[in-house]
Amino acid sequence: MTPITATINVLIVDDHAILREGIRALLAAAEDMVVVGEAANGQEAIERVEERRPDVVLMDIAMPGLGGLEATRQVCVRSKVLILTQYDNPEYIYRAFKSGALGYILKRALGSELLTAIRAVHRGRTYLDPTIASDVIAGYLRDRGEHVVTDPYELLTDRERQVLKLFAEGCTAKEVATVLKVSVKTAGAHRDNLMRKLGLHNRAALVRFAIEKGVLSGIKEGEIG
Description:
By secondary structure, this protein is α/β, with parallel strands linked by helices. It has helices spanning 17-28, 42-52, 68-75, 90-98, 111-122, 130-144, 158-168, 173-180, 184-198, 203-212, and strands at residues 8-13, 33-39, 56-59, 80-85, 103-106, 127-128. It is built from ten helices and six strands. A six-stranded parallel β-sheet has the order 2-1-3-4-5-6, sandwiched between helices.
C-alpha cells in the first residue's frame, strides 16, 4: 500500500448540493484529503480557487452560467483539475484535456476510484476513467489517420465561448451583459461576431452547435426553437 505523505486540499465544484455533500463525506474519510471549499458553477469556482488555492479542483461540466470546461481554462493556471461528470462523450473528454484538465472520471465510478484519481492528478499524472479509456484511445488512433480540419470552436476567444454558452442557454442580451459586466450593446456585438465566425444564422443553429461541442447539454431537439 502506498504510504500517505501529504494533505491534498480539494475544491468541489458541482451545481447539485446533495452530490457535493456526498463527495465531502467521502473525502473526509480519507486521511490525506481536506475539502477547502465548494462552488456551484464555473464563476464561483474561479473565485474560490483565488481565495482557497486548492491543490485539486473536482470540476463538473454542465452547470448554469459559466460551465466547467470554460472555467477549467482559468482554474488550471493555479490548481490541478479533475473533471467529475456523468458524460462519457468523447467530445467532452477531448475538450476537457484541451482545456487543461489532468483527469476525467465518471460520476458512476466507485468512491475508491475517485480517491485514486484525485491522488494521481495531485501528483501531476493524467488520469482517465478505466471504463472509457479504450474507447478514447480507439477514437484518437482513428482520427490520426483522417485529414485534420480546424475545429471552428477552437477559433473562438474565451469571452466568445462564454457568450456562446450563455446565449445557447437562452439568456437575453441584457442577462449576458449582467453576467459579463459589459453593456447590452457589447454583449450583442459578441454574439454577432461569434455567429459570423462560426457561420451560424439563428439561435437554433447556435444551440445545436453548443450541444455538438459539449458546451451545452440537457436540451432536447424539440425544445430548440
